[in-house]
Amino acid sequence: MAKPDSSSKTDPAAGYDLNTDSISSGKGHATPTRKEREAANMRPLVSSDRKAGNKASRAKMNEAREKARVGMANGEEKYLPTKDKGVQRRYIRDYVDARWSVGELIIPVMFLVIILTFINNAVVQSIAIFALWGFFLIAVIDCIVAGVLIQRKLTAKYGEDKVQKGNRWYTAMRALQLRPMRLPKPQVKRGAFPA
Q1: Alpha-carbon torsion 62, 65, 69, 75, what sign?
Q2: Is residue 185 a contact partner of residue 110, using CB atoms and an 8 Å limit?
Q3: What do you get for the CA distance between the two ends of the chain, in Å?
């Protein structure tokens, strides 16, 4: 078979234009051997300067950890643990953060009771302990009420078959924490209930 003329751009027999780029010009260098390619791809597994390598690795991990911490605090979905992911959990967090919960005061009340138990008076100590148990009871009732309300709202919004399990427990655990200590951080103001 005859070699086509590189000067002609069309082949009349074929009826289309020939690609003359590969015919007229080469790549300009020899194909590297397998040994040369493997040598070019070889990198040491461990850096020659271990201290600098460890320092760089630690800095990179710290940066990634800080980014994840800030993302989680801000409620970014990709940084949240599995128990906090999803639109329903976001709704619960926003609803609990918008309301006043009795459980938020549990830590200050416990500190107050501990201080009162140091008073060397049996009557004051007994009153403090009974007040603490009464407060616990009120906080539990408040958590139950919040859980039932949120469950009804989620059922109305998403349908009974689509509601996640464990929402009441999630509501109670968030309602029992002080507002500044909650993670993810509250994204709504008091009274700004989600629709």
Answers
A1: positive
A2: no
A3: 78
- Does residue 171 contact residue 163 with C-beta atoms inside 8 Å? no
Amino acid letter, 68: A
Residue among 85, 59, 52, 48 at smallest CA distance from 170: 85
Least confident of 26-35, 89-98, 111-120: 26-35
Q: What is the pLDDT of residues 109-135, one digit of tens each?
A: 999 999 988 899 999 999 999 999 999
Whole-angstrom distance, CA of residue 159 vs CA of residue 50: 58
pTM: 0.66
pLDDT at 24: 54
**CA pair distance 148, 35, nearest whole angstrom:** 70
> Cβ atoms within 10 A of the Cβ of 189, count?
8
Q: Which distant-in-sequence residues (6+ apart) come within 8 Å of 80 by Cβ?
A: 72, 184
Distance (Å) of CA 1 to CA 4, 7: 9, 18
- Going by C-alpha positions, the residue among 157, 172, 181 that lies closest to residue 87 is 157
- How many angstroms separate the Cα of 88 from the Cα of each of 150, 159, 166? 10, 12, 11
Please name the residue ranges forming H helices in 3-121. 21-24, 34-41, 50-73, 87-98, 106-117
DSSP states of 170-187: HHHHHHTS-GGG-SSPP-
